[in-house]
């Protein structure tokens, strides 16, 4: 009974395994696990661990050497944790780099890097220890520009956005055995025929590792492990002519770790030339459908506006700069995009005058201006249209302050990109004006010269002492003409042109027409003495004064008048006037007053 049950159980188990391995789903998995499909799945963003788990019976050799993240061969996969590392391909292999080049005056103890290890997973720390010891300034080198092995990893990380390292001895052995020479054959890997000149190796070349040889009979630490083309780790003592001194030149292959999950990849950026504030669309693989962060070349980060698993839209921040970008999702980052993003530089005003007058030329200093003058414009507060400068360089713009400018900030627009506002406001100083005379009669034309007048008549106004105002009769940007109004008083005047007020002018003496108030007597005959009271008689006493008699607006006669005081004249009734009613006016130096309101009667009242 028990044997029968056992036999039935085993038969059922075997049948289940058979059906599982021959089910349509499994057949589909098998078709996705060919070498070609594995590469296609990697290209579509799947992780090596996902492929390994989904392909029963897959060999690691089917995954090793396949390109991941676009162009990097997979060198190692931890099948339990799912992480591993990739390596650079032959296109970025460095030939002839030293582990370090020591100054002649330095002994071997000075280049000791304690703490390096040989195990897989330690290359990152090893590389950090080496760079921390030797630095990136060249202080340990005969030539400060010379690049040592671990520094190549540092520089390549900056170039690609990955965290590249110089592999440990075990990691480098894995790279050789899994990627460089998985078949373990010499072939083309040994360019020189015949036996290898290196004891313990059949190869003619080797690769540096980040693992220092910490046991040295002389007590110095001037040697490091290398790995030959067959994957053999060569320590000190096993190589005679295959010298492992740190100053020896060997090949370099770098490593970069990956995690078990999918890593975002950037395939394109559109558009690839933008201004700050504009949107770009980044497309690729393994994006977060809800939120992504884009890191620009200078480290500035932007969050996505919208996202799918294959694209994300970002607004370019004001402080972002041109270069390659990379995408970050939940602590997983892509490499830098192969495509560079060109961000047209933002013009910046660093200094300019704090005050200026209309039509005055000022110099605006800054950076990122176009040297082509036509590509630059300047905006002023109160002026709707931008102004084209007089001249431009990349760091300086000369421009004329336009009419209508009011106190406010200034901006530069260069290649269509608006700068941040100027550090200070531009204050408009009053217009300078001057008059063509110091004395003028009312209702005569006064000429005012200055700078920054509007050439629109209606945007100019002249204000006289006493509150009288007048609109000019003719205008240009540096000249106004205006008729002096009757209400204007002697004193200063000023102009307001397009909202900008001028300084006060020099004092202007305004001579008004005489105005007859009354006269006595109201009637009389020829030769009779008249006393006339009037305003505005305070003029040059030496000039001639006349009293003119009008009948029906026709002059009928005149008589010389004598000056008594500033309000009184005396004259006589002219000879030959026919009896009748007459109005009078006063003429001083050929300048006549208005006719009197009341009338003087010649002859009898019945006439």
UniProtKB/TrEMBL annotation:
Entry annotated with the keyword Signal: yes
Domain of life: Bacteria
Domain IPT/TIG: 264-339, 347-410, 432-507, 514-593
Pfam family of the protein (one): TIG
Keyword presence, NAD: no
CDD domains referenced in this protein's UniProt entry, alphabetically: IPT (cd00102)
InterPro entries registered for this protein in UniProt: Dictyostelium_Tiger, Ig-like_fold, Ig_E-set, IPT_dom
First and last residue of the signal peptide: 1-27
Keywords noted in UniProt: Glycoprotein, Signal
The protein's name: IPT/TIG domain-containing protein
Annotated organism of origin: Flammeovirga agarivorans
């Amino acid at each position: 009974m028990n044997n029968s049950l056992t036999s039935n159980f085993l038969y059922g188990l075997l049948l289940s395994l058979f059906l599982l391995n021959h089910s349509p789903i499994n057949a589909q998995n098998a078709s996705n696990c060919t070498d070609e499909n594995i590469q296609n799945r990697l290209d579509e963003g799947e992780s090596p661990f996902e492929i390994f788990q989904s392909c029963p019976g897959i060999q690691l050799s089917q995954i090793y050497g396949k390109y991941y993240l676009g162009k990097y061969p997979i060198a190692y996969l931890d099948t339990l944790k799912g992480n591993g590392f990739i390596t650079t391909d032959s296109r970025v292999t460095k030939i002839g780099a030293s582990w370090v080049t020591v100054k002649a005056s330095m002994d071997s103890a000075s280049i000791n890097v304690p703490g390096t290890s040989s195990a897989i997973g330690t290359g990152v720390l090893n590389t950090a220890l080496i760079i921390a010891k030797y630095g990136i300034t060249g202080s340990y080198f005969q030539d400060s520009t010379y690049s040592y092995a671990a520094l190549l990893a540092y520089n390549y990380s900056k170039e690609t956005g990955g965290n590249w390292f110089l592999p440990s001895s075990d990691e480098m052995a894995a790279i050789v055995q899994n990627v460089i020479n998985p078949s373990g054959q010499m072939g083309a890997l040994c360019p020189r025929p015949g036996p290898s000149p290196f004891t313990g190796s059949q190869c003619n070349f080797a690769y540096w590792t980040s693992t220092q040889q910490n046991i040295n009979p002389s007590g110095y630490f001037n040697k490091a492990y290398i790995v030959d083309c067959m994957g053999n780790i060569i320590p000190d003592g096993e190589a005679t002519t295959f010298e492992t001194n740190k100053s020896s030149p060997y090949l370099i292959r770098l490593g970069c770790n990956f995690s078990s999950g999918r890593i975002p990849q950037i395939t394109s950026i559109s558009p690839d030339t933008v201004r700050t504030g504009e949107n770009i669309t980044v497309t690729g693989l393994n994006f977060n459908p809800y939120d992504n962060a884009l890191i620009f070349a200078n480290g500035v980060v932007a969050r996505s506006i919208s996202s799918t698993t294959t694209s994300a839209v970002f607004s370019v921040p004001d402080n972002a700069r041109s270069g390659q970008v990379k995408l970050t999702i939940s602590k997983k980052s892509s490499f830098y995009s192969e495509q560079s993003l060109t961000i047209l530089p933002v013009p910046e005003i660093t200094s300019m005058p704090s005050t200026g007058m209309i039509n005055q030329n000022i110099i605006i200093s800054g950076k990122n201006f176009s040297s082509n003058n036509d590509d630059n414009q300047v905006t002023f507060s109160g002026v709707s249209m931008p102004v084209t400068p007089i001249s431009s360089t990349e760091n300086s713009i000369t421009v004329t302050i336009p009419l209508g400018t009011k106190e406010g900030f200034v901006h530069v627009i260069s290649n269509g990109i608006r700068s941040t506002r100027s550090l200070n406001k531009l204050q408009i100083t009053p217009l300078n004006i001057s008059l063509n005379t110091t004395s003028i009669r009312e209702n005569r034309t006064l000429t005012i010269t200055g700078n920054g007048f509007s050439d629109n008549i209606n945007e100019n106004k002249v204000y006289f002492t006493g509150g009288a105002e007048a609109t000019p009769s003719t205008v240009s940007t540096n000249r106004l003409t205006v008729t002096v109004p009757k209400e204007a008083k002697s004193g200063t005047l000023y102009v307001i042109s397009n909202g900008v007020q001028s300084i006060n002018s020099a004092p202007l003496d305004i001579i008004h027409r005489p105005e007859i108030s009354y006269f006595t007597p109201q009637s009389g005959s020829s030769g009779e003495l008249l006393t006339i009271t009037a305003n505005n008689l305070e003029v040059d006493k030496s000039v001639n004064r006349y009293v003119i008699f009008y009948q029906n607006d026709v002059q009928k006669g005149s008589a010389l008048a004598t000056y008594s005081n500033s309000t009184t004249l005396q004259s006589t009734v002219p000879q030959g006037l026919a009896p009748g009613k007459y109005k009078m006016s006063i003429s001083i130096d050929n300048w006549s007053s208005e006719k009197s309101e009341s009338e003087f009667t010649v002859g009898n009242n019945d006439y």
